[in-house]
User: Fold this.
Amino acid sequence: MNQHDDTAHRARIDSLLLKGKNVYQPLYNYPFETSIPPLRPCEDRCRAVEAAMEGNIRGRKLWDAGCSLGYNTLYFVDRGISARGTDIDPRNVSICEEIKRHTPGEASFAREELSAEIVEAIAPGTYDYAFFFSLLHHIVQSRGLEHVQGMMKALTERIPVLFVELALKSETPPPGYSWDAHLPEDELAIFDSCEPLDIRLVGHFATHVGPVERPLYRVSRKAGPGSKAP
Assistant:
């Protein structure tokens, strides 16, 4: 970018950051300071997930559902994954489209609400990995546990490996939110409708929601004879 483009780019980013409710993530590879600090770091989770992928990264395909400001998406694009990030907030998608220029690789972003219809339209083989980081509790609250269980069944049939960060019933949500009243006692109950799964804890991570750390899991189908994980 030349200086004029650089100034216009920064102005667009600053304007977009001011429009949203919060700045949830840092801006990956963004070379300029921002006036609004992020609510939580992301590198800790990304490094843990990267280790859990066991080197199976370059050339793989990722769907980052609820991608927010694109940090997690672009972190893995930077390491050779081809990724699609989706988010319900058009402000977030616009920021992702702006900042992806700083990270070489294949990244696309789209405004999309996670739904059973979206999941059921995914053809097997479209993605190797999917991320659902601190997202599913909102759908449990709005659509119910049974709805999310149905989505998880469809997802695990279509995408070999999911990484899910789950809110806990023991959390105290911020004012205006009540997901704790809707969550099951066992956060892994969202997978009760699925075929046998291999569920591994990746780690626990702090959020901006009080002192309770959220667990992040690697979820895959049980491997059958001769099968290969991505």
